[in-house]
Structure formats: C-alpha cells, structure tokens
Amino acid sequence: MTATATEPAIDTRPARILVVDDERSMRELLAIVLRREGYEVLLAENGRAAIETLEREPVDILISDIKMPDLSGVEVLRAAKQIDKNILGIMITAFASTETAVEAMRLGACDYLSKPFDVDLLRMKVREKIENRHLRQENVLLKRTLGLTHQFANIIGRSETMLDVFKMIETVARTNSTILLTGESGTGKGLVAQAIHFHSLRRDRPLVAVNCGAMPEALLESELFGHMRGSFTGADANKKGLIEVAERGSVFLDEIGEMSAVMQVKLLRVLQERKFRRVGGLEEMQADIRVIAATNQDLAGRVADGRFREDLFYRINVIPIALPPLRERREDIPLLADHFLAKYSEQMGKHVTSISQDALQFMLRYDWPGNIRELENTIERAVALESTPVVLPESLPPAIRGDSPRGAGQSTDGLPDSGFDLEAHVKEIERGYIAEALKRAGGVQVRAAELLGMSFRSFRYYVKKYNLR
C-alpha cells in the first residue's frame, strides 16, 4: 500500500538537515550517515553558528545536541521555530534528563535521542520525519484535487482482500463512525486512514496524526489536548492540541494499544462526551472530530489481560477494518515492486527499468515479515546495487533469495524412503542460523542481521518467531 505515481506532485528535493554539535567527531559522523541517505547536510559547531545558518539557509530538520558551551540545543530550537515554525527538531543528549527532553519536545522538537545512539535508529527517525512532512504536503494537495470518487489514488492493490478493503472504505468514509484499523506493521494503516478522511464529508478540514507509542504520557496528553501557559516548566504560551487543530476534521491515533491507562480514560471521555480540557485549563472545549485508530496488536487479547480498557475498546471498534499482510496478497507484489522501482530509479538517476522474472519469483515466494515497508527497502537496495537495466536476483538480500551456506549433514542425497517433514527441517535450520548469528554478534540484533544479509525488521521478526533472546 503506497502512493501511486499519478498523485499530485510534491516537493521532491533532498531534505536539508542542519547538524549542531560541539564535538567535531559527532558532526562528521552524522554528516557521513545522513549524506549517504541522500540528504543535504549543513554543519554548525555551536548554537550561535547554528542560528546564523538558520537565518540565511532554509532547513527542513534541525538535529542538535542539547548541552553546548554557548547556547543549549533547546535555545537553538526556540530560535529556529521563530525563524520557521515548520522546521522539525531532533534533540540529542548525553545526559539522560527526561525533563530537558520533554521540554524540548513541548517547544516543538519532534523527537530526541540519548547518546550513545544507534545510527540506524537515527536514520529511521529522520526518514520517518521526512515521510510525515511529505504526507502533510500530500494532504494539502489531495484536499484540492480529490473529489468524492470511487478511486483510491494513494493505495495500490488488485487482490481480492484489497478490493474488500476498498469497498469498506467507500462504504464507511462518509459516516462519522469511529474506525479501528488493524494489521501488522508496514501494511499501510496510515494510508488507509488518509483515504477514509479524504473520501469523507470532513475532507476540507485537517487530518492530524499522532503516534501514541512514541512519546511519554505527559507529552502525549499535551499533544492531544494542548496546554495553558504556565501549566508546566517551559510552557511559555498557550498551545492548541491536535484535537483542537483537527476541529471538524479527523484524528488518526496510531499504535493506540500503547496508550497508558490514564490516557485511555481521558480519551474515553472525549469519545463519550465529545469534550476535553487543555492541560492546566479549566474551560471545557468541544471535540467535533472523527477518530480513526490503528494498532498492530491484539486489542481484544489486551482487554482480556487487563492491559486495555474494555469500554474504550468497544468505543473505538465501531467499524473494524483488517489490513492483510503482504504474504496474503502476493498478487500485489509485482505492482508494488514496479512502483518502487520507478520511484528509486528516478531518485537515484539510474536507468533500472524492470525486474527479472527470477528476481520476481524470489520476491513472490518470500513471506515479507516487514510487509510493504520491507518490500520498499528491498527495491531501494536493489536499485542502488544494480549495474544493469534489470534487477537481477544477485541484487536482492540473501534472505529473500533463500541463500544459506550448506553445512555438514545437509545434503539432499540422503532423503529417507519414508520421507520427512521438510518444512520443520527448514525451520530448524533457519532457527539455528538466527541463533548462531545472535551468538556471534554478542546479542546485538543489528549486527546479527548484517551477518545474515537481512534487514533488521526481518531479523527481529524471526527472533520473535523462534522465541530467541
């Protein structure tokens, strides 16, 4: 599930990132990592130099150390927001001060990392922020260009399961009922939420999204409900929450299963009474919103375990829509792969125009534990590595090709006359390699995934599948 090539054009220039850190080695490391991702990177050795750069150069993302000799990263962020309120901020700190990090996020930072951090995690966070910015741009364009049609321009799929999803979207979009999207990570729940909103009667109003599992309880409360000036340290002005911003529009609550018990109670009140209060405020405000929630968890099971409120579950599960994993809609793989191929060939300026039948067969047989996100990463990797106009099997990760070194006793010559359980045998071999990679990597999953030529998401799936630690 992804955006199609026929969508309205958005800004596709490389994102410009300003890295601020008084440690030269950290600046240079981040510059190397981010430039390899295709971003334009500017560097500043202190807060004052950063502000000077911000005053003369447009910047998409600010990545700043919090503790610096002249100005703190929080002060740099405050100045950056005055220059450009839409700038995204990621704060880095070597001091595990939750209060400082939360203060930075209340001022507008979208995330923070504690040193030392995994560069793969930084890559993921930066990519996520850029994708979210593009989605917001698409929101604006889609509001201008999408009328009420029977097309779903932001979703790709022709399988029966996806056609059922399309029909359900078409049926429920024009209602105000609360919707619960379920499915594994990477199946496109965010894009379905967009499709529902932009085919609804609220399409001319905002669609705002919040990841309920990505921030502490206090910060989530402020993000959803807003806060009043002076209600906590750093609250130097009144701030609207996302519910207020989405007035007469839609709110997309992703990973709702991660919401704390306290926040579940507060959300339940919004759904029942359509009222809320800002943090530190006394005035009750009306909440004219449509809620679309999403989870990759078994919420019914969490209710049974006492980890999710039963009354809230029934409030959000008015209209459930289950999104199938990619392994259950394999006929959509060629469509998705062709789309990503065109996307990354253009981005990288490479003339890679097709996928060989052998490579496609490998992809059709693979189970895709990371779903569409993993498929996209695979095609991006293939385009980057491919030296011919056609994606060949050699450009696919070994896990997708099914490659594994043949050890002693694994010959196929000794097949018993009575036969044997091939699937169980393959699983045992697979489990052995996963366990051995973990052992050699000292338990570091990122390194173990590299040893096997797998994506981290795929490796994590198999670790969970085989209950390895």
CATH architecture grouping of the largest domain: 3-Layer(aba) Sandwich
Strand content: 5-15%
| Biggest sheet strand line-up | 2-1-3-4-5
CATH topology group of the largest domain: Rossmann fold
What features would you describe in this structure?
- This protein is an alpha/beta fold and 469 residues long.
- It folds into four domains: 16-119, Rossmann fold; 146-324, 3-Layer(aba) Sandwich (Rossmann fold); 330-403, Helicase, Ruva Protein, domain 3 (Orthogonal Bundle), CATH 1.10.8; 415-469, Orthogonal Bundle (Arc Repressor Mutant, subunit A).
- Helices cover 45% and strands 13% of the residues.
- It has 19 helices and 16 strands.
- The chain has helices at residues 24-36, 47-56, 73-83, 98-106, 119-145, 160-172, 189-198, 217-225, 242-245, 261-273, 299-304, 310-316, 333-348, 357-365, 371-385, 398-401, 422-440, 445-451, 456-465, and strands at residues 16-20, 40-44, 61-65, 88-93, 109-114, 179-182, 207-211, 226-227, 239-240, 250-254, 275-276, 285-286, 290-295, 319-322, 354-355, 390-391.
- The strands form five sheets. Strands 2-1-3-4-5 form a five-stranded parallel beta sheet, sandwiched between helices. It has a five-stranded parallel beta sheet with strand order 7-10-13-6-14, with helices on both faces. Strands 8-9 form a two-stranded antiparallel sheet.
- α10 crosses α12, α13 (333-348) packs across α15 and α18 packs across α19.
- It is globular.
- The chain starts with 15 loop residues before the first strand and ends with a helix.
- The model is unreliable at 2-10, 140-151 and 404-413 (pLDDT under 50).
